[in-house]
Design goal:
The protein is α/β, with parallel strands linked by helices and 664 residues long. It contains 22 helices and 23 strands.
């Protein structure tokens, strides 16, 4: 969400500390602010300061640009009234920041009361009120059917134990705690007991927030910021020596920077941003920490259901698509034939029943013979040959000498012959998978091309600007997400509102819909120094445009040229004049990438993609248009080349299995 004048924000704990700073910082952006706090005097002061900041953006308003609402956030009735007051003045809610927080007035170990005015009250303010305010904010945003952001201000004490105040730690969050691994020294049994109590508390602000990530589908993003010690009234109660050991006070400017990043970055949903002097802004959990509590699935164990048939019925014959004449028109070049299916199969081979097959732009190159060496006459002499590059299914039978592959097991292939009900391939070409689902098909040619090429050809690092063309297609969707996961700013081109919507949902920083904007103008204006990496699959004029936008030391990876595949006379090569001179002038690199030359990396990268999908870090978009049976393959290929597809185009070869799987 772009922070701009006219948005409205609701900030609890806004009268002091972090809340005060955020109210004023938001007002400096022209955002209307409701300051919610128990302290009336300080709250009115912050509202007045915020109004003064807003004057540069708003004049002649019939309502105040900032208001104060006195509220005890531990009182549900007062919270409800505060939200109603905000809506009455501003008519909607764009940003909700839950910043109210208190420490316990008594040492937990020495508290002899029932806790109603000490630790129970702290949990009501620090945790229960956050849940209540978040819930109300979500309901308001849902009802208005408009995007919104909720930022919960947690604390780094929720990422590791704070033995001086276990209740504060518990209320702010609890997860990944292991007091034996901490470097603190414990002076007494009561300190250990306090820490154990904090470990026992299993829910807090961080885990609550991270669990709400799915609301992003409705345009509502809930994130949590966890700063270490900031110079506030709350921090003054902490031993200064302890603060020094933690790296000293974090500046308020850094806290504001982190908060604004969580608000503006559309890819952040259910995210936890840890703010420290030692490490700066870092998203939690780090990959290293995440590995301590996430079970990394093997290639045969993911979030997919593992229910598959133990046997596969083998018919006497099956249908498949073969190329009978060389032609760039896939429909004209191919035909459906029925072939006999005889057992036993060859030694060291596997018979695979295809459930889903993937459609690729290069299917037309295959049907025209462009991928075969030799003259057209020599290639024609090999006809007919089986079509289809990729598929997933179940192992129906194995030949002698095949080990570690069992009948009924799910598997994928990336060899010719996937447009068929059954296909026989050497066992060495079998890729074990968790389930024969369309998402796995998308991870094959499309996913592996993105994963391997960005690593090997693009040599992708973090902190770069990455441009992806045809980004809403089968491979583009993987490229944009992998670039984001690597810590880069991603720019993506597409054609159409549906495609643009998908890319924004995938976390793309800047979507350029060429039906609405001129790509060249956008790149020149917004990225005057150029982009560092280009993932290019369109070719022709798009190649020229992207290459001219490449920065000094930039790298362009060419994985295809779909615009040149279906010319009047088939695949037509294009001359790129002046290419050498341009490369020399800026020390740039143009690298070609062809997936079949990286077979040794397929299983490794496929396992990685499946893992990312399993833990929710990777989305897989399948085009919703249904193609069922071998007879629909030509329609699917033409649909892909029409430019209408969004995500991976997949043909369901065996609908009976997909219907059965849906019931399971």
């Amino acid at each position: 969400m772009e922070l701009k004048p006219g948005l409205s924000a609701f900030v609890t704990g806004g009268a002091s500390g972090i809340g005060r700073a955020l109210c004023i910082a938001l007002a400096q952006k022209g955002v209307f602010v409701t300051v919610v706090d128990f302290s009336e005097e300080r709250g009115k002061e912050v509202a007045s300061l915020s109004q003064n900041e807003n004057l540069k953006f708003h004049s002649g308003l019939k309502f105040p640009s900032a208001i104060f609402v006195r509220c005890d956030v531990s009182n549900k009735g007062e919270i409800a009234a505060a939200f109603e007051n905000h809506l009455e003045v501003y008519g909607g809610l764009d940003i909700c920041i839950n910043c109210a927080g208190i420490s316990t007035p008594a040492v937990f170990q020495k508290d002899q009361t029932d806790g109603s005015r000490t630790w129970r009250h702290a949990i009501d303010v620090n945790l229960v009120a956050v849940i209540d305010c978040t819930h109300r904010a979500i309901r308001i945003m849902e009802a208005a059917k408009r995007p919104g952001v909720v930022i919960n201000i947690g604390s780094a004490s929720g990422l590791y134990p704070m033995i001086t105040d276990p209740i504060y730690s518990a209320s702010k969050v609890t997860f990944l705690s292991n007091f034996r691994q901490m470097s603190f020294s414990f002076n007494s049994f009561t300190e250990k007991a306090s820490l154990l109590l904090r470990v026992e508390e299993t829910w807090g602000v961080v885990m609550f927030t991270r669990s709400l990530a799915p609301y992003k589908r409705k345009g509502i993003r809930i994130n949590v910021l966890c700063p270490e010690f900031v110079r506030t009234d709350l921090a003054e109660k902490v031993d200064s020596k302890f603060i020094e050991r933690m790296g000293g006070y974090v500046s308020m400017d850094t806290v504001i920077q982190g908060t604004f990043e969580l608000i503006s970055d559309e890819s952040k949903a259910g995210s936890c941003l840890w703010v420290t002097n030692r490490r700066g802004l870092e998203y939690w959990p780090t990959p290293t920490e995440e590995s301590k509590y996430l079970v990394v699935p093997s290639r045969l164990r993911t979030r997919f259901s593992s229910v598959v048939p133990s046997t596969v019925q083998i018919p006497q014959s099956f249908e498949k698509i073969t190329v009978h004449t060389l032609n760039h028109n896939f429909r004209s070049a191919t035909s459906i034939v029925r072939a006999p299916l005889r057992l036993p199969i060859k030694p060291n081979h596997v018979l695979l029943k295809i459930i889903y097959a993937g459609v690729n732009a290069s299917d037309v190159n295959f049907s025209s013979g462009s991928y075969f060496s030799g003259s057209k006459q020599e290639i024609s002499s090999r006809l007919p040959f089986d079509a289809g590059f990729e598929g997933v299914g179940l192992i129906a039978a194995v030949g002698d000498g095949v080990k570690n592959l069992k009948v009924g097991s799910p598997a994928a292939i990336m060899t010719f012959g996937a447009y068929a009900e059954f296909t026989m391939v050497p066992a060495k070409h079998i890729l074990p998978v968790a389930r024969p689902d369309p998402e796995v098909v998308a991870m094959l040619t499309s996913g592996l091309t993105a994963s391997i090429s960005l690593e090997k050809a693009a040599q992708m690092e973090s902190g770069k600007i990455v441009l992806v063309t045809a980004a809403a297609g089968g491979t583009g969707q993987f490229a944009v997400q992998l670039a984001k996961l690597a810590g880069n700013k991603v720019v993506a081109t597409c054609g159409g509102k549906d495609k643009a919507m998908l890319l924004r949902d995938l976390g793309v920083d800047r979507v350029i819909d060429y039906k609405e904007e001129v790509i060249k103008n956008v790149l020149k204006k917004e990225f005057p120094k150029g982009v560092d990496i280009v993932y290019e699959s369109v070719g022709g004029e798009m190649f020229d445009l992207c290459f001219n936008a490449l920065a000094v030391y930039g790298r362009m990876v060419v994985i295809g040229m779909i615009s040149q595949y279906q010319g009047e006379h088939g695949w037509k090569p294009r001359n790129y004049t002046g290419l050498c001179e341009k490369l020399l002038a800026k020390s740039q690199t143009v690298a070609g990438f062809f997936l079949t030359q990286y077979t040794h990396l397929w299983q490794q990268h496929l396992d990685s993609l499946v893992h990312l999908f399993s833990v929710g870090k990777l989305k897989v978009a399948i085009d919703p248009k249904s193609f069922v049976g071998v007879q629909s393959v030509a329609d699917a290929v033409e649909y892909l080349h029409s430019g209408k597809s969004v995500g991976k185009v997949v043909v369901c070869i065996d609908p009976s299995f997909s219907q059965q799987a849906a019931k399971l």
